[in-house]
Amino acid sequence: MNSDFHIKSEIRILGIDDSALLNKNVMIVGTVFRGGSWIDGVLRSEITKDGLDATDIISNMIKKSKHYGQIRVVMLDGITYGGFNVVDIEKLHRETGIPVIVVMRSYPDFEKIKSALEYFSDGKERWTIITRAGKIEKIAGGKGRNPIYIQKAGIGLESLKKIIQLTSIRSNIPEPLRVAHLIATGIILGESRGKA
Amino acid sequence: MNSDFHIKSEIRILGIDDSALLNKNVMIVGTVFRGGSWIDGVLRSEITKDGLDATDIISNMIKKSKHYGQIRVVMLDGITYGGFNVVDIEKLHRETGIPVIVVMRSYPDFEKIKSALEYFSDGKERWTIITRAGKIEKIAGGKGRNPIYIQKAGIGLESLKKIIQLTSIRSNIPEPLRVAHLIATGIILGESRGKA
């Protein structure tokens, strides 16, 4: 399942970030990158704030893209999008056939998440999806920068580390996620801000 | 006025493209690039389809950006945005203090434009702005690819050519415009398509 594979320098990667929670519909942006070098495409879709549709919507956005046949890895910025819309990374991997890498700047505060989920009638289901995302590991960020935390589905740790090093050319966050963040914040707020 | 200047490899460039004409408000997207290498920021604003507000809105978008002090060149994809919303490049240069480069894949069909402008009550004013944009010159595209056509305000031809060569690393269109186009079409249509 979590197999390692050969990483080409121009491996196609889809990085997905969400935008600010201004409405019930939250825009998500995907950037199709070749390695860490340049953008081949931009995808956009909407998920529901605090809904449970993120997994299906991301999966469909990928499958209907003209880049679907080329994308070798999907990168997520954490597993909760649009508030507490939790992405089931095993299901996303299974439905698209593409390995999934979750990148986080810091270790998630699970106590805080668990408390927040108590306000959801389906909080238990969301918590199950969160725990199903597997072990969180701390690895080196790109080019000796700050470490990052990762989860994964359908990819081995060695391949994952190579992809992180290949694509983190500007910060400790891989380019597909850094640029998806710039686009998502720039489009919704008028000018990009903050970090992925 | 059209002076040449030293071009650093990481010169900050703002490339601006518009999106599909689906509504009265047409989204414009700006990408702040360092040379042809990577994106530092994304800007977004709206102009009126077939209006005459593009010059002022682009000028204001630039002046209120946190990148304003760093941007050394503005690149436009032709001078008509959102239908026939004509950009006055001399005014844009004067108001922002930043040189402007207009990039076109092909020589504009001025007869067609002139005919279309007959349907506008202020068609003469728009035509004056178009002629004021100055001589259209054919120059080499990046890396020996197809030639492009350019106009300019506040920059010499030698500096302009260096900037085109520096930034056209993926096609004969400079990266700031290529990526602005991918973002504008991707966000509005759900997936990027076509060429800047």
UniProtKB/TrEMBL annotation, chains A, B:
InterPro entries: Endo_dU
Parts of the chain that traverse the membrane: none
Coiled coil: none
Pfam families for this protein: Endo_dU (PF01949)
Similarity comment: Belongs to the UPF0215 family.
Protein name: UPF0215 protein RG963_06440
Lineage: Archaea, Methanobacteriati, Methanobacteriota, Stenosarchaea group, Methanomicrobia
